[in-house]
Amino acid sequence: MEELFEKSIKRIAQTDVSFVRSIKDRINWNARLIGIKGSRGVGKTTLLLQYINLELQHVLGQVLFVSLDNIWFSENKLVALVDNFVKRGGRYLFLDEVHKYPNWSVELKNIYDDNPELYIVFTGSSLLEILNSRADLSRRAVIYHMQGLSFREYLNIELKADLPAFNLSDILNNHLRLSQQIVSKLRPLQYFKQYLEHGYYPFYQEVKELYFLRLEEVINLILEIELPMLRNVNPAYINRLKQLLYIVSESAPFVPNVSKISERIGINRETLLAYIYYLNEANILFSAYQDAKGITQLQKPDKIFLENTNLMYAFKSKEINVGNIRETFFANQLRNSSQVELSPYSDFLVDSRYTFEVGGQNKKKKQIENLDNAYIVSDDIEYGFGNKIPLWLFGFLY
Questions:
Q1: Residue 98 vs residues 13, 53, 103, 220, 342: alpha-carbon distances, Å
Q2: What DSSP state is assigned to residue 308?
Q3: How far apart are CA 292 and CA 216, in angstroms?
Q4: Are 184 and 199 in contact (CB under 8 A)?
């Protein structure tokens, strides 16, 4: 155990806290069992280490951070480690990459029940594995979902700034004042296209030339290993799923004709719908519906988007539809804290209340002119007017 404790102290000490994700302040760290799930590369490990560094320095001797893919666990049990840790006065346990450890959710449930003085936070990059474990951890764990960087967070990293987040009500009611506040400090459109291409996953900072290669590796890991292992996807169909992702990335906001797609990529209708559902679970796709309540695995989506705009560029499509980019960005940023559905009259219905039409700077109000709580969201403008709001400003929601 000494080697794990030493590694823990070393990693905590080496963690940079100059930029911290906004989700840190939304998590109730007083809960005894916290799970943080999210796609590979969104910064879950860094978040844990930063929290320890910033909030638990005064009790560092009672803290252990350990990744469950450590070779130590090839011959040792997690439950034995925790027993030893608690006997030595340990109170704060941080477990990274839990999905790498066999039967982790069962052991974690037992550890939680047997050690009422212990606070546990765990992360998992396999969204499918975390979903599988819910039954074991039900009524015990508080689960948070961590998205990639917002446009605001990207700007704060790039410019070493401290730009604030706004809630949706702020943006809808005070967007001109907020835009003026931000534009007085920077020109957001100067950085917006860069963010759409490569700013969603924090690892873009490491070696920018290898960003899309790493992103492709993340996608392949989900498609080639996790889906076959955790959702019984036939490995022979993996290339056909990649073909589906190319189709979505190249399309105008994609309205699926399931029969035609099924014929084109050679997967029967029911199997195709199930696979689309799994790709949503894995945060590669976002399927949008006019009514998102009670969605079933075999329900046809009304539109399909990639989960974020960086994925569109990762697939190296010959031509990316600008309308698709705009709607993908809008849906992604809003979904962090709102329910996003399709509007029967326009593009999106948010929180069952607000209607949004997304387009370029010359987008007209015709489709929403007779609707209450309806807004135009326009790209390529710094400031809005009335119910016309700049698209980039919705990147300040978290």
A1: 22, 21, 9, 20, 35
A2: S
A3: 30
A4: no
Asked if the model's pLDDT at residue 294 lies above 70, the reply is: no
Sheet holding 354-359, edge to edge: 340-342, 348-350, 354-359, 374-378, 388-390
Does the global pTM surpass 0.85?
yes
- By C-alpha distance, which of 312, 313, 321 is closest to 379? 321
d(CA 34, CA 28): 8
pLDDT 10s digits, 37-47: 998 899 999 99
Cβ burial, residue 2 (10 Å; 0-12/13-18/19+): exposed
Q: From the DSSP assignment, how many helices (H) and strands (E) are in the chain?
A: 16, 12
A 10 A CB-CB count for 157 gives: 16
The bridge status of strand 285-288 relative to strand 142-145 is unpaired
Task: Name residue 342's beta-bridge partners.
Answer: 348
Question: What angle, 0 to 180 degrees and rounded to 10, lies between the N-to-C axes of helices 151-159 and 188-198?
Answer: 110
CA neighbours within 13 Å on the CB side: how many for 170?
14
Give which of 102, 99, 68, 71 is closest to 82, Cα–Cα.
68
CA distances from 337 to 47, 120, 162, 398 (A): 19, 25, 21, 8
Where does the pLDDT of residue 135 fall: very low under 50, low under 70, confident under 90, or very high at 90 and above? low
What are the tokens at 279? 């790709």
- β partners of residue 341: 349
Contact between 78 and 99 under an 8 Å Cβ cutoff? The reply is no
Q: Tens of pLDDT along 263-272?
A: 988 899 999 9
Q: How many residues belong to the chain? A: 398
CB 127 within 8 A of CB 221: no
- Report yes or no: 175 and 15 within 8 Å, Cβ to Cβ: no
Task: Provide mean pLDDT across the span 103-130.
Answer: 90
pLDDT at 91 over 70: yes
Dist. CA 110–CA 82, nearest whole Å: 11
Neighbouring C-alpha atoms within 13 Å toward the C-beta of 75: 3
At residue 89's C-alpha, the angle toward residues 88 and 91, to 5°, is 130
Look at residue 130 in the predicted model and tell me its pLDDT: 73
- Residue 234 is predicted with a pLDDT of 93
